[in-house]
Amino acid sequence: MFRSHNFSAGPAILPAEVLEKAKSELLDYKNTGSSIMELSHRGPEYIEVDALARERLTKLLGLGDEFEILFLQGGASTQFLMVPYNFLYDGAEAAYLNTGTWSKKAIKEAKLFGNIEVPFSSEDSNFSRVPAAGDYEIKGNPAYLHFTSNNTIFGTQFPVEPESGGIPLVCDASSDFLSRPLDMKRYGILYAGAQKNAGPAGLTVVIVRKDMLEKAKSDAIPSMMSYKTQAGTMFNTPPTFAVYLFGLVLEWLESNGGLQAMAKQNEEKAAKLYTEIDSDDFYRGTAEQASRSLMNVTFRLPDENLEKEFVAKAADLHLNGLKGHRSVGGIRASIYNACLPESVDTLIDFMREFRRMKG
Ligand SMILES: *Cc1c(COP(=O)(O)O)cnc(C)c1O
Known about the structure:
Layout: E1 5-6, H1 16-25, H2 44-61, E2 67-72, H3 75-87, E3 93-98, H4 101-110, E4 115-121, E5 145-148, E6 150-151, E7 156-157, E8 169-172, E9 187-193, E10 204-209, H5 210-215, H6 227-230, H7 240-255, H8 258-278, E11 284-285, E12 296-300, H9 304-316, E13 319-320, E14 331-334, H10 341-358
Parallel strand pairs: 1-13, 3-4, 3-5, 5-8, 8-9
Antiparallel strand pairs: 2-10, 6-7, 9-10, 11-12, 12-14
The chain binds pyridoxal-5'-phosphate.
């Protein structure tokens, strides 16, 4: 079977085992004679799929009873508005760390609902870094501190959760969700579009701590926008096939040693790639060292023509999805959980060969 070396930023590579299993069950799910896509979301088969996905996610992240898991739609972009809609009322404020395009979009939406404080921004260095402890001070009395754990476009990542002085964290974890263990007790809300590191497009996973959920707006808010409505029983039809695939990804994570093992493998893959980038000045990383992402590795070549040629020649070898985002330029290798170490090795071999020819 032909599988490319897929470095797409998202929708992104899924484990081949997951796709194989989905394929084997696609037309006849567990002797029902129907695809899971064709079954009622209130029927026993889907109820089991849903429950098992919740159970697996709870175990992998070590979530206690204090969290609710929501399977929503609308992408992380809908969470940009849903978070402030639910928590910024009666004069409440929020703080946002501005570390890239997605943070900026979250801030823009939040400003429609309340007073927003931005204690840190790396915009003046084209978002080449995330803050370290002590780089910012939260002045007001925000209901939450929002951050983007991994900046998909700029190739930066918080190595650990940011300082918040006890203020609950709200995190857009779209592009590093399930790539490593998390200190969940610090989070009020964590949300992620599944299509980067956790499943197909169409599912947004939202994890809400119950004491935060209690403070969510309960009147004068449209039902679909309300966390209180969305928590618990299914308010409307969830993206059933996407949840099913997400469940298969969780099963795959479990059988591959869980988040600890995944974190180790992700560190190894990224370290190899950054070592190659740093080995001379032909390739040049765009993110500051201490802020480098283990998920999206961004780098430049000496000029744009070489970058175009790099992307084209790589594609000839089935090394796909390497073109950087236009706001950074250059190359972006997205090396999510499902990206095999062999694909990273193949990319490194290609980088060496390209430098030998053109450097
Ligand atoms: C891709 C991405 C988004 C946007 O997600 P949608 O599902 O398209 O709304 C938001 N935040 C981050 C960090 C992303 O990587």
